[in-house]
Amino acid sequence: MKVDLHIHTTYSDGAYSPEMIVDTAIDCGLNVIALTDHDNILSYDIAQNYAKENDKKLEIIQGVEINTIYKGYEVHILGYFMDVKNHEFQNMLKFQQNARVHQAREMITLLNKKAGIRIKFDDIKKLVAEGGSIGRPHIARAITNAGGTGNVTEAYSKYINDDSPVYVKRKTVSPHDACEIIYDAGGIPVFAHPIDVEIADSLAKELINYGLRGIEAYHRKHSPAVVEYYSSLAEEYGLIITGGSDFHAPSMNHGTIIMGKNFVPAWVYDELLKEKKRIEIS
Predict the structure, then answer these.
(1) In the predicted structure, residue 256 carries a pLDDT above the cut 70
(2) pLDDT attached to residue 263
(3) What CATH number does residue 12 fall under?
(4) What is the structure's pLDDT at 254?
(5) How confident is the model at residue 258 (pLDDT cuts 50, 70, 90)?
(6) Domain that holds residue 257
(7) Residues 191, 78: Cα–Cα separation, whole Å
């Protein structure tokens, strides 16, 4: 069994539609995937309906990735199997979405005033699927499309960083709130790609008190040694281990795309299901 529990679509900053993700996952030989768009859950129903209508044999898990900023760090919390109709969960998504829109509008104003780059909100909005999560990649692309920079990489280096006079940091829920809300909605909160967060070890231990149930040990950024480290940490803390490619767009490294190429043991999926059942009966 091949598993990938971290995949993005055009409903956040992914390059593939939910339908394309389903087809690509099957082409890659995957059996189980989780759609984990940033602060957004709209891709799941689309992918499920497409798979069902076209008799695609693929297990699709309802997921999400909540982007939080805590003590200057980007801390991402994955969620699996939550009740997406839960009131507090819905309110969290609304807060996150509104914050994204506010950030984009504030940056549009500053880009015009301080950099002479004229873009409209619609220029950014059209780069994501309807109802999707606007983020830094879309703002960077809009800047480039308007001629403000020669390419997206330049847009990031000039404007999409904390030191830029036109960059506005987004307000977010805390990782503690994200874990608690996902858990209270019947979901499984997981610390995503902890290698990116210097305080990951101490923060993960702290977040257990707010419902954290897993650590993403398997990730494309994680070397075998890092996988082993976070697997041991998960065992020490009594947490499950998850993993995925964190697929956003095709990469021709080694002649293949990244989705499904990040090795995730089949037992990871089994442990996720066991945790789901444990939460349901608790």
Answers:
(1) no
(2) 80
(3) 3.20.20.140
(4) 38
(5) low
(6) 3-89+175-281
(7) 6
